Amino acid sequence: MAKHMEKHMEKNMIKVGIVGGTGYTGVELLRLLAQHPEVELTAITSRKEAGMPVAEMFPSLRGRVDLAFSTPDDAPLRQCDVVFFATPNGVAMGQTRALLDAGVKVIDLAADFRIQDIGVWSKWYGMEHACPDLVAEAVYGLPEINRAAVKGARLIANPGCYPTAVQLGFLPLLEAGLIDTNSLIADCKSGVSGAGRKAEVGALFAEAADNFKAYAVAGHRHQPEIRQGLTHMAGQDCNLTFVPHLTPLIRGIHATLYAKLTQDVDLQALFEKRYAGEYFVDVLPAGAHPETRSVRASNICRIAVHRPQGGDTVVILSVIDNLVKGAAGQAVQNMNVLFGLEESLGLTQIPVMP
Amino acid sequence: MAKHMEKHMEKNMIKVGIVGGTGYTGVELLRLLAQHPEVELTAITSRKEAGMPVAEMFPSLRGRVDLAFSTPDDAPLRQCDVVFFATPNGVAMGQTRALLDAGVKVIDLAADFRIQDIGVWSKWYGMEHACPDLVAEAVYGLPEINRAAVKGARLIANPGCYPTAVQLGFLPLLEAGLIDTNSLIADCKSGVSGAGRKAEVGALFAEAADNFKAYAVAGHRHQPEIRQGLTHMAGQDCNLTFVPHLTPLIRGIHATLYAKLTQDVDLQALFEKRYAGEYFVDVLPAGAHPETRSVRASNICRIAVHRPQGGDTVVILSVIDNLVKGAAGQAVQNMNVLFGLEESLGLTQIPVMP
Amino acid sequence: MAKHMEKHMEKNMIKVGIVGGTGYTGVELLRLLAQHPEVELTAITSRKEAGMPVAEMFPSLRGRVDLAFSTPDDAPLRQCDVVFFATPNGVAMGQTRALLDAGVKVIDLAADFRIQDIGVWSKWYGMEHACPDLVAEAVYGLPEINRAAVKGARLIANPGCYPTAVQLGFLPLLEAGLIDTNSLIADCKSGVSGAGRKAEVGALFAEAADNFKAYAVAGHRHQPEIRQGLTHMAGQDCNLTFVPHLTPLIRGIHATLYAKLTQDVDLQALFEKRYAGEYFVDVLPAGAHPETRSVRASNICRIAVHRPQGGDTVVILSVIDNLVKGAAGQAVQNMNVLFGLEESLGLTQIPVMP
Amino acid sequence: MAKHMEKHMEKNMIKVGIVGGTGYTGVELLRLLAQHPEVELTAITSRKEAGMPVAEMFPSLRGRVDLAFSTPDDAPLRQCDVVFFATPNGVAMGQTRALLDAGVKVIDLAADFRIQDIGVWSKWYGMEHACPDLVAEAVYGLPEINRAAVKGARLIANPGCYPTAVQLGFLPLLEAGLIDTNSLIADCKSGVSGAGRKAEVGALFAEAADNFKAYAVAGHRHQPEIRQGLTHMAGQDCNLTFVPHLTPLIRGIHATLYAKLTQDVDLQALFEKRYAGEYFVDVLPAGAHPETRSVRASNICRIAVHRPQGGDTVVILSVIDNLVKGAAGQAVQNMNVLFGLEESLGLTQIPVMP
After folding, report:
1. B190: exposed, middle or buried (C-beta count within 10 Å: 0-12, 13-18, 19+)?
2. Nearest residue of chain A to residue B218 (CA atoms)
3. Which of A345, B109, C334, D245 to pair with B275, CA 20 to 30 A apart?
């Protein structure tokens, strides 16, 4: 196999570090960043796998990523322009301040900086927060809502996968004040990669294949994150019933959203107008049903809006790839905004179908 | 391969005919009936495959079903005690009267006799009804609601798959008058066998695998059937938003149901009490989430009831195997009731897991 | 849910114990034994899950298995008539002697007693053997070859999944001395449940779904077991290249076997004659291709034999359900033989299709 | 959704037409060509779907492909620089001469020009060949073998999917004359997209999921194509047993190849040396097992070579994505060679994992 032609190094590339690159969001970051024309992959850490070439763990990257995992201590993270945390919850908050102090931008793909109410965060994530002041500073990185804030940020809280699909689905209606905020329902279905690359019985093929189930109906960590976002959009408290389900997909989230309309409105026009300028949000024609595979391996969110039998219940269908727009892709999108690049740079892959 | 020991024929077996045995509900009927201790498979028809041994089309039945397909004209259907129609919609209504007149009981697994309002039926199924008087006579075969009526019937309308899962889920609440009947939501997910064994692009493996989508959000034929059932239970008109989804399962339906509670009540006790005497409905402990595989290849419906964060939204999770409790198994259950047999006879297979 | 009718206890049921019931072979034993008309489930052990009702871990067994897991010390194993070991390799050999001494029959579903050459066993399984004398006594439980020996045995070594499919495929040819024993090839494909219910990254849904790979090409533990069996059939040393693959099935093994014919022969007749009296081996018509799903959840092995373009290479296709004929079902078949019952008792489930 | 930035049109783009764009190889060509920096998609035909925007049939292409299907008569195919045929067998041979006469290069993804022996072709494809002289002229487009000939060709016969995986696996051994050409075995496993996007029962999700089977063991059309290629490499007649299997993957082919070594040799060094300069063939380290997902959605073939237990049987494992290196990607690779572009241009997508 001939080596991939090196990117030209004379120009000023963005030096990127990744902390925790052995999970699915880590390898997806690598896939996207290795193809990004303005990025130089500088370091990737894994305490456990230090010394192992990344492409040995992930053969899909052979010939394309030459880095080996290094320990967090040895990795030149402070020489990076930006560091992505693709770590379990609670890791980024311990290392972020030092990086920020060294002038490094931080994008956390975990939940450490997503929820502004520290008490709520602690309750759902089961730990004390190490740096509430940085939470206050962090910008919630959903560019379709927060683009301007992202641009000037040092620290980005990259949204969760469910929260991305749900918030983009409700956004036009809540901004326009057209639905009852007291009875929102998000019935969400996720592929199994959303559970991460941890060895757990429930995520085994023989458990998850040919099987469908709801989980965490009593309460899921993404519920307060979504509720915070919806409340922000609506300008008033939103009440959300959120039911996540596990479905035998590798990648993909399908959110089916229900709300009561409080006014009559041309829903199709509303959605199309709201997202007309957004590269990564595609409003389907009236009557359509987005499929998860229509966004597979791409950073796109596709949305359709329905009003069954002309009643007062609006049904929104919103699909993303949980590892791309729901994680690594959105993180790269945020990086592009942060560094003043074209927002779609390195993210124009066409979805893989079938 | 040694032949399976023949059932003893000296006793008075129920002579069974199947019209249209080449689809998934047909082969599932064969699987169940070939193991039923009181049944003698007498005829199975398929105009297209007449002459072909059933076990040649379905090798899973080799050594267990000796019948060959015959044409409807040649098949000794009038000598049967009961005939199952596993045909496309519109077939059974053309042949039922003659069978009834010959003293044969009829169980229709299609939709011909499910909806009492002939106008509604014609609108959704796109044809004139051939025998409205028989619709009026037909009994809707959900034994958990209609057992007594089934017992004395000549003609059973076997419920649809979605309608079975949804009705059993809402039943205790509607009977007890505990929820707002104006804003019921049924977010349902079905495996691909629900689409039948017809060659259609949308049901191809390369289309349906690793993919999730909603369909027919504007309107689905099962909506009026469910609504009729819910209205009957509630004693008042019910308004239902029904959104079906296709998920990469072979078998299985998961219904996630949402309603507004109008009174405080011990939901767990309510459900357990309602289904205490039902062999085929299993109410899971509080906090549980039923999986579709926990009922795979069995006639059981498992249900859990939740009240997230103690709010006024009740969430019911209801799973069935669409080919068994959602079709062939329920049809055999109805047959057992009709002929005065133990209701679970021939239907005690333990679900196949994993 | 109404309780399943209890089996009548007045007759002399076989008291059965299971050691290690939390894996897939364990739960499959439970599925089969709970439906077996002559079995009384007496004890099931799991040190880790002691106290937990079996049906809480496996909801598919709700209402059908009332046992809870107990510790090996507390379980009344010595009061059983037969004990099945569904444990990791190396466990059964430590507990078998005491059970045999107490007059209990033992059927080991792991590999402890499968290989007669203790040195070979130790090399492949990486441990010393605790009781070589019991290996010498143990009977290899492939009833289609060893029925008579099984009948009189105290200790059965239940064959591995791959070995079952491969040996039944080669058997007629080797017994008849019709193929070159120097160049046998077994290209085998297994579903993921074959890897067990252990939490391992490689068996995760997101790793194993939509993926196909060979593994252990340099050497797999089942190779010496198969080779021993083939050599025994042939009466001379057999040389086998064995390549296992992982395929995205839950259940199922497909063995594709290649050999050089040394004589001209009517292959179809040979196979049909050899298996004419075998309840669980089904020789398909000439030209057929068995599908794994045609034996799903059943104890059947289906075989087809081909001679492409009339050349001297014979191709045998052999399919089983790895958890049934490849593990739990075959163990129950052995139990039936041991106790003088009809060999198919409790094992007549029709395969689940689709 | 903001429109994708148009490629700059001032430079001299290659004008491309596609005949028959509604199948999986068609949509895959579109995915690759829409991202190719030197290509201008000019026409895509489908008699049946004429007038329908391509992105309406394939929503994954929304915002990226603006073309609509046109009839073959209306499409400006003769103004193209190159036309790809992604049609059923027998279509390209009827239209190729006119295109060649108009100075258009033709790349046929079907089988019309793959087999030089017209009699063999007619036997396997069941029709008379329309233009044997063009078969004689056509170049078999496996660039790793035929690069020089491809460069000067007018007409390329793009190899089949199985033939690509098998030929690249055997190539180093046959070129070097190291194996017995009389007993080659190719045990191949394909994903279901290989069956095309035709509505056929056997390719339904409920038939192909959780199922594994061999097919066409008596004879498959790719056997003579592979044999022709192997014979050409070896310089002597090769005898091949080819057994294809269907496995529940969307994309992917895994070829497991068996041969007898006639000489001792450093297999790893042989393979590495042969493919050192090939961008799209990756020889894995000794002892490795390539996974189909490690090449998913990419044009790479990954190969590992084994010699189990040091015997004289060599086992080669070769994986490709059947729709990319096995069809559309290889066609684009051939186009790049034909037009003097860098061979990997537009084909550097990193495989999608997981």
Report:
1. buried
2. A308
3. B109
* Number of C-beta neighbours around residue A136 at 10 A: 10
A1, A52, A144: best mutation site toward chain D, by most D Cβ within 10 Å?
A1
Distance from CA of A28 to the nearest CA of B (A): 18
CB contact under 8 A, A59 and D4: no
pLDDT of C8 higher than 60: no
What is the chain C residue with the closest CA to A200? C199
Residue B285 structure tokens = 């402990």
What's the pLDDT score for residue C10? Answer: 52
The model's pTM: 0.97
Q: Would the ipTM clear 0.90, i.e. be above it?
A: yes
Determine the distance from the C-alpha atom of residue D22 to the mean position of all C-alpha atoms in its chain, rounded to a whole number.
Answer: 17
Q: Please list the active-site residues of D.
A: 161
SS3 per residue for D289-318: CCEHHHHCCCCCEEEEEECHHHCCEEEEEE
Tell if the CB–CB gap between C300 and B1 is shorter than 8 Å. yes
pLDDT above 70 as % of chain B: 97
Beta-ladder partners of C26: none
Quote the pLDDT of residue B9: 52
**Residue in A204, C278, A298 with CA at minimum distance from that of residue D64:** A298
**How far is C301 from C143, CA to CA, in rounded Å?**
13
Nearest to D282 among A62, A251, A300 (CB): A62
Q: Is the pLDDT of residue C18 over 70?
A: yes
CA-nearest residue of chain C to A247?
C205
Identify all chain B residues contacting D248, using CB atoms and an 8 Å cutoff.
Answer: 205, 209
Catalytic residue (one of C131, C161, C188, C238): C161
Which residues are within 8 A (CB) of D249 and not within 5 positions of it... i.e. 6 or more apart? Answer: C210, C211, C212, C248, D190, D191, D192, D292
C161 contacts C124 by C-beta, under 8 angstroms: no
Residues of B at the D interface, defined by Cβ within 8 angstroms? 24, 191-193, 195, 197-201, 203-210, 248, 250
Task: Note if the bond before A244 is cis, omega within 30 degrees.
Answer: no
pLDDT of the residue at D7: 53
Q: How many CB atoms lie within 10 A of CB D180?
A: 13
- Domains of chain A listed by start with CATH number: 14-137 (3.40.50.720), 161-322 (3.30.360.10)
Supply D137's token pair: 């002229």
In terms of residues, how long is chain D? Answer: 354
Contact D211 C247 (CB under 8 A): no
Give me the torsion for CA of B289, B168, B292, C26, rounded to 10°. Answer: 80
| 3-state SS, residue D163 | helix
CB D178 within 8 A of CB D262: yes
**Cβ-based contacts of A169 with chain B (< 8 Å):** none
Contacts of D195 in chain B (CB under 8 A): 206
| Paired residues of C140 in beta bridges | C157
CA dihedral (D222, D225, D226, D230) in degrees, to 10, reads: 170
User: Residue A61: how many CA atoms within 13 Å on its side-chain side?
Assistant: 25
